[in-house]
């Protein structure tokens, strides 16, 4: 059985006003997640705004994360860039810095076929001796990892897991069914709002961005599901769905990405977890009215007094 | 009046079998284009497979190009990466290496609004003292540079030009109309197959990928249009449309991108311009049957005996 | 509490070789569904190939259905056509013929805004004294009924329910949460493969096309969920997921719609429920090899010896 | 050589406040177009809001149109509905009422493959003895008539022409090239804003919606192109592009379709051609502020004092 499972939040990357990483805040985020009982951490994912960071910053983040986590939970690292050989470079750095597994998307900017996606994962697997997790995120890369692609890669050992952020729950279910005999493969949903149902389907883990704000909620949800108490799981999920509505507060004024991660950061600042809610360029930060609205939602969810 | 105009091919990047850049072949490509009378060259664009190259390789390509071109024609350089500050890093390198202008897309992987796109260009303009050309390529970045975005950036001086590879000729025409008074702004179409009509609309330049294969044809087309001989321009364009059909020979077996640029490379190899038709990973090269079919098309176009 | 709930299959419309409706087979389909314990029937939906039927045929189908059903379960009728006043005409016919409720999509062919969609439903509601169910099926009408649109219509009483075939389970969940206090509103999922999880979320009903083939399975699934036995519900669902794979047998040779409904008809013919698997023009019927493969899947699901 | 060619406007359908057709206004529209020198009229197309009209209204419109046109120019009639046999019914009515040709889209609501689209046209051709024009309008039917589909249908005689409203000018050009030897086939662009360039490519006709407002402009443009005066054609086109901006005046408040055809009707009312600018449900009419802005654009285009 794989050591990867459970609640594995994609870690928000707090920034200083000069756009450098705010490592003291970053350390507090990691401690906050581990203290709450999360089963792993996923750094340098989309929620971490990985795509805004250059190679040196990425290396620093991984090394800092490895030092803080210190083996207490698995450290999963996103190695996200457009094409195969650039990903290989990131993967080597991640392995050297102590990643337990790396997370790889389909190529992007370049338009790829499923056949090229298969080769992409195989080339990376052959080039770096580190476990690969496939990341299905069509909203960012504009191609879906099809069921057959994921199943083929898992069966031939090219990947050890999947993070499914496609929103296609039916397809995710078929991957679970197809790989049911492969006990060493773990399949995680990237959704925040259908975690109870993904667990009912048999998902091995969940990667909810908003767990940065409320990790305890997702750990309770996970525990309820593990003991088969689906009523409790559902009730916790519904509370978290209401909390998740912070991501739409700024939508329209800013892009969906800026509204969502900006809301996470704004909430974490209100909760004292991080010092500032600075966003990388060209994203704009949330404003005062939006912050006030987010604070209301935090209060309704029982997170803020 | 701007110094940028005319036929400005996006330069194919020939590779060695070990995936390094084949500089002797690369030099021949540049000489081939300049000898044919092209009015500029655009290196490190989508046709150059820029997105597959790491920072060091990009720097080497720019420096090599600057040395070969040596001021004979303007050197325009793509600085294409997902987010603002990463693009700024590339733009500084390009400027230092002698670029006359740099070409910038909207952010990608991250989903952006038009407002964030405006800021993206403004931040880059403020950070680097080099002329910016906006690159509208929704097929790669999955967002359109809207007419109002382009016109706003041009009017405020943030960009000096546009390369429109969106296929939306009506929108391109409105940009031409809206900016007709701005004589220092140049608007180029990225299409290969409607160059005559783009020139009739008033386009200032054209960036046809297949000009790597047949630059003389596009120079003749440009000259015919300049003297108002639209019948000759159309006739030349129709011949080039038939030549352009090489890009579909391998489609289906490989992705559209691999089929298209693979066809350019295959044709250039058949014509003796470059030594090999190697593709960057995960793209596959064209096979023998596809090469034979491409050679047939080259013969029909009068390029091969 | 609404009288609508439970398993409400969208009824397949069997055809004769001359493309007229095969009413003896049609009657058997209805009896098959009601005998199995289905809680309602939905005729003239997408699975019924409503869009291929003219006004007279639709009227005949409704009248025939009303006669066969004879009040044993609710009769829900699709009134699907592109624009408001054409839908009103169908709705009047459906009401006169005995429909308990009618199912209305967003307008199609014409591109509409959410505001026009709101008006569309309100105009129909005002014109015909019959209960409306909103049908969210973006794959056919190419616009999503947004959460706020559905909630607004439900709260103002313009609709009494929703059939959600959008595949967006997160959005469906929010509609359930937003309307939790409205006990007279029923929300149904159109999915076949996530019925257990939709019921865990609190869905009031399910509209699975493949229930035409195996209604007993979905009734068992519903009953398991009603008594809170989620393990049994999941197990039944997983069996049905394997059965559902018949819809992909012909995909590629014919369109997805023809492959899916063609598979339902082919399976129902193999099971002796209907006499022929004729498809309306321009759809092609499944061939012998595809039928053999479908029979294999039926055997694996325990439906065929 | 075909009798179809030139400027063939899609005729706006004026409505009375009770949503019936305003035939006196409708007659004036037809006379206005024929007097201006248009070479044909296309009734019951998308611009005619065909999809809002029931069978009886459509029949009345065709019969009225045939009576008014009275053979002075060809009468082309849209027979637009979702599926094959429903289109056949409309086509028979159109033929009986005097249509010179009928215009057929791909199926819609149902998702179709290119193979099914081929069969769709063939079934209609076999069922009705009337000339078919293929209508490529992916924005409404959500599938493209691919180049090979159009060329196949034209070569086998199933269609005699094409109305291309896809905005894909490159693809249109290839259809022109592929069918250059078929002198009996006519290919028309549905665009308003690239008519000069479509004619340079060799288009046989143009179907501009805004010709309802300014038919003289398009006739002048056509005539300039016929005599090879591309400078004059371009200049006329640019004036018409500025006029066409009326279609965006209401966009955002209402859907794009309502904004566009609503603008045509509003302008035609201001010009005294029709009596009211009523829109079919659920579309909203333009308001006073929007009308005032449209009148300004009409004045700038020299159409209103």
From TrEMBL, chains A, B, C, D:
Keywords from the UniProt entry: Lyase, Schiff base
SUPFAM superfamilies attached to this UniProt entry: Aldolase
Note the superkingdom of the native organism.
Bacteria
Q: Which Pfam families does this entry report, sorted A to Z?
A: DHDPS (PF00701)
**PROSITE patterns (UniProt xref):** DHDPS_2 (PS00666)
**Family recorded in the similarity comment:** Belongs to the DapA family.
Its name, as the record gives it, is Dihydrodipicolinate synthase family protein
